[in-house]
Write a structure and sequence with these properties.
By secondary structure, the chain is an alpha+beta fold. The chain contains 3 helices and 6 strands.
């Protein structure tokens, strides 16, 4: 896999950067389980929590640096093949960088995630595992090697 340089196309310059934060909003049928999984087990610090009318609740967790990774269908298939050995990912998959993929994967499985693939070294020199996690998310846990 080759890496390209940052774009020099219009809109790519610092003067055009207007996005300050990426928030991924996920509906969770079992809200308490999802909050405990991502906050307490995965270790995402809680920034805020709000409650509203009709039992409405939201918890905002800090995910560190965020990126939006846009892949074409061939790249999505290749990542599935490398990480899992077969096509399993839905259109949206969330990846979390951690210090220790193996330990984090074990803790997440113990907390109720289903492991789809164990930690696997990728051609781009990261150690990735794939899980089905609370709130209906498929997640990749990775550490840079």
């Amino acid at each position: 896999m080759t890496r390209s340089e940052p774009s020099t196309e219009p809109g790519a310059g610092a003067a055009h950067r207007c996005v300050r934060q990426l928030r991924l909003v996920v509906e969770a049928e079992d809200y308490e389980q999802a909050v405990a999984f991502y906050r307490d087990v995965l270790g995402m610090p809680q920034e805020a929590a709000f409650a509203g009318d009709g039992e409405a609740r939201v918890t905002i967790l800090d995910a560190g640096r965020a990126t939006l990774e846009i892949a074409n269908p061939a790249q999505k298939r290749m990542i599935d093949d490398v990480e899992v050995g077969r096509q399993v990912a839905p259109r949206l998959r969330v990846a979390f960088e951690v210090e220790d993929t193996a330990a984090t994967t074990g803790a997440l499985v113990d907390a109720g995630a289903m492991q789809l693939a164990p930690p696997t070294e990728t051609p781009w020199r990261s150690l990735n595992s794939r899980l089905e996690a609370p709130a209906g998310l498929q997640i990749t846990i990775f550490e840079e090697l």
